[in-house]
Amino acid sequence: MEKKGYGVLHKIVLQGMKSGGLLDFHRVKTLFWRASNALSLDEEQWTSMLAIERVFKEINEKIKLYDVAIMSASCELTGEKFFMFLDMMETPAMRMETLFSKAELELFRKIMTAVLRKYEHFAVPVMDCKDMAREINARDFSIEMAEAFVQKMIGLHYFAKYYLDPKGPEYEITIGIRTIREFEPILREVYDDVMTNCHLCKMTMLHGHQCPKCSVFVHKACHEKYIKTWKTCPGCKTGMVKRVAKQMRLKTQHHQVHRIPRLLLRCQSCIQYQKNGG
Ligand SMILES: [Zn+2]
Ligand SMILES: [Zn+2]
């Protein structure tokens, strides 16, 4: 690494994160590539995960006085990693009012409430979203526009696709990682009965893996990282099953047969539970 400390590259990256809001790893890498290229720096060096994390850390040191930060977050359902720019002083409502119409925001609120209050698996059928759009009394807000808005929100990670069968095309709508991070204070205040904390990273979460024995919740991404080293449940230390195929089948069975709201952690007691015909 040629230079140390906060510099022009940091400023370019911060600007990019600010305007992007939430970027996946590929787009973050592109941002670093462009910035290093513009400054005639070695792109190879400045686009490594190590360099990216170091630059974000240095930026955060600089901007923490202003209650803003760049943080990483993984999609609860896919485990995909993102980086997002978070302004703790600005309310999410303020931010969204500049981006969306009144009717769109009303639909967003309706869908969020339905996700958290109506269904025990925290996802609403696409048909329900259309019905909610019909209830909105706004001129110039057609069902087609509502559908386009939902898709846009999926793209922005305010919403996420919740697949009913991991292999099938059918999906429902749930709230995405961006909503969980940006609306965290509101979610903890109004929906604290359904929001929980990941046993591993301690962050607020909705969808994840749950151990049927000790009931701890963990993010899919945190869990997958954890079981690479530890073959036990992070809560009760019950041993894990090794065969991945068996685990996946089990998870699907649990999900479909019992409609348990969150995916189950794959531990030995889970197998017992299944064998006993539970
Ligand atoms: Zn976690
Ligand atoms: Zn456990």
From TrEMBL:
One of its GO terms (molecular function) is ubiquitin protein ligase activity. It catalyses: S-ubiquitinyl-[E2 ubiquitin-conjugating enzyme]-L-cysteine + [acceptor protein]-L-lysine = [E2 ubiquitin-conjugating enzyme]-L-cysteine + N(6)-ubiquitinyl-[acceptor protein]-L-lysine. It is found in: Nucleus. Keywords: DNA damage, DNA recombination, DNA repair, Metal-binding, Nucleus, Transferase, Ubl conjugation pathway, Zinc, Zinc-finger. The keyword NADP does not apply. It comes from the Eukaryota. The keyword NADP does not apply. Pfam families: SMC_Nse1 (PF07574). Residues 183-233 form the Phorbol-ester/DAG-type domain. GO terms for biological process: double-strand break repair via homologous recombination. GO terms for cellular component: nucleus; Smc5-Smc6 complex. Its EC number is 2.3.2.27. PROSITE patterns: ZF_DAG_PE_2. It is an enzyme of class 2 (transferase). Component of the Smc5-Smc6 complex. Belongs to the NSE1 family. This is Non-structural maintenance of chromosomes element 1 homolog.
